Amino acid sequence: MRLLCPPSPTRLQRGFTLIETIMVVVILGILAAIVSTFIVQPVRGYLDTVARVELVDATDNALRRIGRDSAHCPSQQRAGVVNRSDTGTDSHHGWGALLPG
Question: Is the pTM of this model over 0.85?
Fold first, then answer.
């Protein structure tokens, strides 16, 4: 007798319609766009921090190398310092050779 009864509307519906699937994809796309705006700034901040750390490391290495190389120089030649007697001028703190004019 079951074959003679018309099927109920709930038994006929199986799965999702194409429109429902498209709506879900559109809503997920909108949510992804909204969430991505909140993720971009922290990622950009992280990348900036990594670049800054690399620059600081390179600077630190350069300063260490300069310090190591200048440790072997006589004191009169370090960092461009020239004695007053060498320049013939009365420069302040021996930096007269580096100052313009």
Answer: no
